[in-house]
């Protein structure tokens, strides 16, 4: 776990408390030094899942950095009396690193999402980031990750972005990260957004901390997954009372 940044624990998940800019500088230096780095961008759903899954909690404990992705984490930290600086989302971090990687002529390996989505991701990345070397690219519907890991091991990319959703992406990273000393980061539904298959919430929703509400409106099937949010807030409040 990170030693560079102060940590804020939300229901036993240790988040780094810093800015997006400071975090990026640190990650870039790890990539330049070819250091094996595992980043988890966690939201309340992940925190609640870890509570019931000791194996996943263990994976989180072994990550190098856990960032607060989602306003619910900042809210939770504030309730616990340990407010955090800002949200560090997987999507924004990935975009910043793709841009930086393009400037620095780095290489990237992209795995995840449906075949038609990853094809569009490839087009977007080659057009927008022409100096970024795509070491490999694969959709997220594979039976066995071992051959992909073997290719990663062969090509030794600077950054690996895995977009197959949690908990699978973190489990795979934990299992295979030793095969390449680069950045490994799970980015959930980011490829759907990058390719334009899913729209990110307009700025208004983002600025008013209503991104979750926009997602619910555009994908009502997410309601079941979002039901965890009230339970999360209740658990945080209970924890705040007990720790007083
Ligand atoms: N996905 C995948 N392989 C699977 C299951 C899911 O590649 O076996 C992809 C799915 O197509 C989507 C992403 O993983 O692009 C998960 O997106 P979601 O919005 O659920 O992720 P979140 O950011 O909410 O964790």
Defining traits:
13 helices; about 240 residues; alpha/beta; six-stranded parallel β-sheet; two-stranded antiparallel sheet; binds uridine-5'-diphosphate; single chain
Description:
- This protein is α/β, with parallel strands linked by helices and 244 residues long.
- The strands form 2 sheets. It has a 6-stranded parallel sheet, sandwiched between helices. It has a two-stranded antiparallel ribbon with strand order 1-2.
- It is built from 13 helices and 8 strands.
- Helix 2 (44-52) crosses helix 3 and helix 4 (71-79) runs parallel beside helix 13 (228-242).
- Helix 8 (168-176) links the parallel strand 7 (159-163) and strand 8 (183-186).
- The chain binds uridine-5'-diphosphate.
- Residues 112-114, 140-141, 163-166, 188-189, 191-192 line the site of uridine-5'-diphosphate.
- This is N-acetylglucosaminyldiphosphoundecaprenol N-acetyl-beta-D-mannosaminyltransferase.
- Catalyzes the conversion of GlcNAc-PP-undecaprenol into ManNAc-GlcNAc-PP-undecaprenol, the first committed lipid intermediate in the de novo synthesis of teichoic acid.
- InterPro entries: TagA_TarA, TonB_box_CS, WecG_TagA_CpsF.
Quick recap of the structure?
The chain is of the alpha/beta class.
């Amino acid at each position: 776990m990170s030693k560079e940044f102060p940590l804020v624990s939300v229901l036993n998940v240790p988040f780094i408390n810093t800015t997006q800019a400071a975090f990026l500088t640190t990650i870039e230096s790890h990539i330049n030094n070819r250091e094996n780095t595992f980043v988890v961008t966690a939201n309340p759903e992940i925190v609640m899942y870890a509570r019931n899954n000791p194996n996943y909690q263990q994976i989180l404990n072994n990550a190098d950095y856990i960032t607060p992705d989602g306003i619910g984490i900042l809210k939770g930290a504030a309730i616990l009396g340990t407010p955090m600086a800002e949200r560090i989302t997987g999507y924004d971090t990935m975009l910043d690193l793709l841009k930086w990687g393009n400037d620095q002529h780095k290489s990237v390996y992209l795995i995840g999402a449906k075949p038609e989505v990853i094809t569009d991701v490839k087009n977007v990345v080659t057009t927008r980031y022409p100096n970024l070397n795509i070491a490999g690219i694969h959709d997220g519907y594979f039976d066995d990750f071992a051959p992909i890991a073997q290719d990663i091991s062969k090509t030794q990319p600077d950054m690996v972005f895995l977009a197959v959703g949690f908990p699978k992406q973190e489990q795979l990273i934990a299992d295979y990260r030793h095969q390449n000393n680069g950045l490994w980061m799970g980015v959930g539904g980011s490829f759907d957004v990058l390719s334009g298959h899913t729209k990110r919430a307009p700025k208004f929703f983002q600025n008013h901390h209503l991104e979750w509400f926009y997602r619910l409106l555009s994908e009502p099937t997410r309601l079941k997954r979002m039901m965890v949010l009230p339970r999360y807030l209740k658990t945080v409040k209970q924890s705040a009372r007990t720790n007083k």
